[in-house]
Amino acid sequence: xxxxxxxxxxxxxxxxxxxxxxxxxxxxxxxxxxxxxxxxxxxxxxxxxxxxxxxxxxxxxxxxxxxxxxxxxxxxxxxxxxxxxxxxxxxxxxxxxxxxxxxxxxxxxxxxxxxxxxxxxxxxxxxxxxxxxxxxxxxxxxxxxxxxxxxxxxxxxxxxxxxxxxxxxxxxxxxxxxxxxxxxxxxxxxxxxxxxxxxxxxxxxxxxxxxxxxxxxxxxxxxxxxxxxxxxxxxxxxxxxxxxxxxxxxxxxxxxxxxxxxxxxxxxxxxxxxxxxxxxxxxxxxxxxxxxxxxxxxxxxxxxxxxxxxxxxxxxxxxxxxxxxxxxxxxxxxxxxxxxxxxxxxxxxxxxxxxxxxxxxxxxxxxxxxxxxxxxxxxxxxxxxxxxxxxxxxxxxxxxxxxxxxxxxxxxxxxxxxxxxxxxxxxxxxxxxxxxxxxxxxxxxxxxxxxxxxxxxxxxxxxxxxxxxxxxxxxxxxxxxxxxxxxxxxxxxxxxxxxxxxxxxxxxxxxxxxxxxxxxxxxxxxxxxxxxxxxxxxxxxxxxxxxxxxxxxxxxx
Length: 557
Description:
With 557 residues, the protein is of the alpha/beta class.
């Protein structure tokens, strides 16, 4: 095993370790995280692995694979945040490794490409979230990676079934998109590199892989749909799929024709931010083209400069176009392009920072860094002013963490500025990578725990008193509904009350009961109500109303 391969594996392990640590430092942050994790807890508790449920009702928005992975992790490690997020951390670490292995094929070294992939903000955030995104990225990228093996070495008997299995697993993770994206990218790359006539045999094998992927998906999908009386198909395909394509679901995108047009630049802007700081190096792509001709092997069309460019364009451009045409828009939708752009940036570095092109690259990067660095400097200055801003008193812990983050960012920017001024690009690359990992660790260690204590009060409250609730008690919430409550109450069913009448009926019903209510919503109600006693109270910031509120946990034995 070569030193470079060992270092590439080492980079993937370091990224995994950082993601694991950060994932363990915060509660389930996003609402979707709590829904996925709670569904996995319910699957583990009920033994029903055929279809997921949330709050003990059918959750037919995605297929079952992510719930299988999470429930397996929860079975081994218990119902915790790190157990729910473990599949995502592993998936991103494997994506980094596969990216490095691709770079070794084209450039002889995989360390830089793996590092770039593992330290881009989009993939780091995806890697610490208990959602489908990291797992979907792994399987779609794996299908593409297997295709590249055929691209480089010729088709082998195992390529088609392996690609089919990868796409089948992607389908089982998030439905049709798991097949559409890799198939679209691979077809585009083939046509660009070989022309439509010569690409035919390869596309025929791709079609066979797609069929196999669909068979794997249907092996689960048909029984799951039958077990739910056809509801799985109706909700996931008939209702939600057209809504996601033609409407801005949950306001994720612009409404109407004007809103759609205004959101056309959405993904380029997301990419620029989500791929920082490596976006800077994309300014060298054009001057790198000529140098790439001399650095790639010409022993086949696949390894030629033309073949590599066709591969990169085919893997990067279609997801941008596809998701731009879809009305619903979320940042992580374009994450399939990130490993390929990491490969592109690694190629730019290998082909530009050598020989006669080095001075031009140094001068251009110096200018680009100081342009971007000015914006980062302003952001760091803003963080340093947090302790003196007129924020509510409850935010004092966050302002202190933000101040420390600002100091850290200032230090990193100073080191980078010195490197770029001296023209030491190799040191700048190391500082970029180390700086991103340090900033992520700082956010996990200092910022997120302090911030979530303020804006996620239900999590702290339910985690504190979950063990005190009798097993047979009915559970309800009034005035504050958050999916994380289901997770921290062990996946128990929560009755959501929306008006004073339903609250009154719940209070009058006999038997043991547990109630979480927002005191502002329950004005006029004497607390605690007759027969109930106060278990706990937690203050938190209601970002919808822009003010602090109190959550109260009440129990009747």
